[in-house]
Amino acid sequence: MNQFDIITPEQIQNGEATDAYFERTEEALKYAGKNPNVVAEITADQFAEGEFEIFSGLKDAAQLLEKDGLTVDAVPEGTAFNGGPVMRIEGNYLDFARWETSLLGFLSHASGMATAALECSRAAVDPENGEKTPVLSFGSRHVHPSLGAMVERSALIGGVSGFSNVAAGDILTQEATGTMPHALMLSFGEGNQEEAWKAFDEGVSEDIPRIVLADTFNDEIDEVMRAVDELGERLDGVRLDTTGSRRGDFKHIVREVNFKLKECGRSDVDVFVSGGIGPDNIRKMRDVVDGFGVGGYIVDADTVDFSLDIVEIEGEKISKRGKLSGVKEVYRVDGQHVVVPKETDVDAEPLLQPLIEDGECVREFSIEKSASCAWTDAERVGFE
After folding, report:
1. Residues 369, 60: Cα–Cα separation, whole Å
2. pLDDT at position 281
3. 357 φ, ψ to 5°?
4. What distance in Å separates the CA atoms of residue 308 and residue 97, rounded to the nearest whole number?
């Protein structure tokens, strides 16, 4: 029996993480001696319209589809799309049929979170000067722990500056960030916040910034001033994670904290906020805050409703009712996402590029490049 109700990577790779009806389809096709050569496309919307979303999860999808006989094209990870295919698969149907469930899961979940992360990252940009307030991903606690690295990778593609999950840091070769939870202060008891902050300062590696939670038992200004007195010049910043029922006007609280820090000559102390933060909070507070921790808004994002549809069998156009038959191309033209039949002549480079050729992945994956693609594409299409 598997621990923690986890479907293993081996089961995914072997095609066991599938819906039962794909197994039945395999049985039926094999019984009938059929295994047609098909072209299948993965789309969320048939036509380019509506809200743009960010394509993510491609690295895992590519690993899944590295199978003999398959040819796969896909738009670059980080591409903003609002319709048409993001991936095209050509090969004998039984060579990939049972992997459809996992493939759509990889893309749908990651794309939803990358989109939400980009919404937060874009909201953190001051339109007057272009400066961006850092946004950190604190949300892996909202999902099954086996998904931690996928969560943080998707958030990075969406433009966050860092994340909190330690195991994800090991996988993504990027150090996790974060300093303390309220549990540290609670462990020392009410009125003993200074002891907790001192233990952190003296017990934690010097390369970790001295950013303390300053809202556990008392008014935020009171705890911030006590932290200033206790740690002195060693204090780098404070984080306010005040419970929503006690916040009132959160921006006003932060402005008061900034005023008091300036009054005592410590305007160098950064102020970070977290807890229930989303794009609206970020837009409202980006001028008074030095960084945001975002959790639920990213990881609880709606998944992108991708589907995989056969559009050609043995060279003949075909589709189910309500879907568009035939192979299609997608382009970026004057900031617009354009979807046309493949044979249409368009004066632009198609976004669907080779991913798998003769069963081998021909593309390298870089979180930094994907994040850059997402940011550039967001500018082109007016993503908000």
Report:
1. 16
2. 94
3. -125, 125
4. 10
Which tokens sit at 260?
Answer: 């008091």
pLDDT tens digits, 17-56: 999 999 999 999 999 999 999 999 999 999 998 899 999 9
Output DSSP code: residue 93: G
Co-location of 256 and 132 in the same domain: yes
Q: What is the DSSP string of 268-335?
A: TSEEEEESS--HHHHHHHTTT-SEEEE-HHHHTPPPP--EEEEEEETTEE---TTS--S-EEEEEETT
Residue located via tokens 């621990």? 3
Beta bridge partners of 333: 336
Cα gap 191→226, rounded to integer Å: 11
Query: Domain holding 224: CATH number?
Result: 3.20.20.70
Name the residue range of residue 147's domain: 127-299
How confident is the model over 206-255, as pLDDT tens digits?
999 999 999 999 999 999 999 999 999 999 999 999 888 778 899 999 99
> Is residue 358 helix, strand or coil?
coil
Q: Is 91 in the same domain as 150?
A: no
**Does residue 18 form part of some domain?**
yes
121 occurs within a structural domain = no
286 Cβ neighbours under 8 A, 6+ residues apart: 123, 124, 125, 126, 133
Nearest to 301 by CA among 108, 146, 95: 108
Domain end, chosen from 250, 268, 299, is at 299
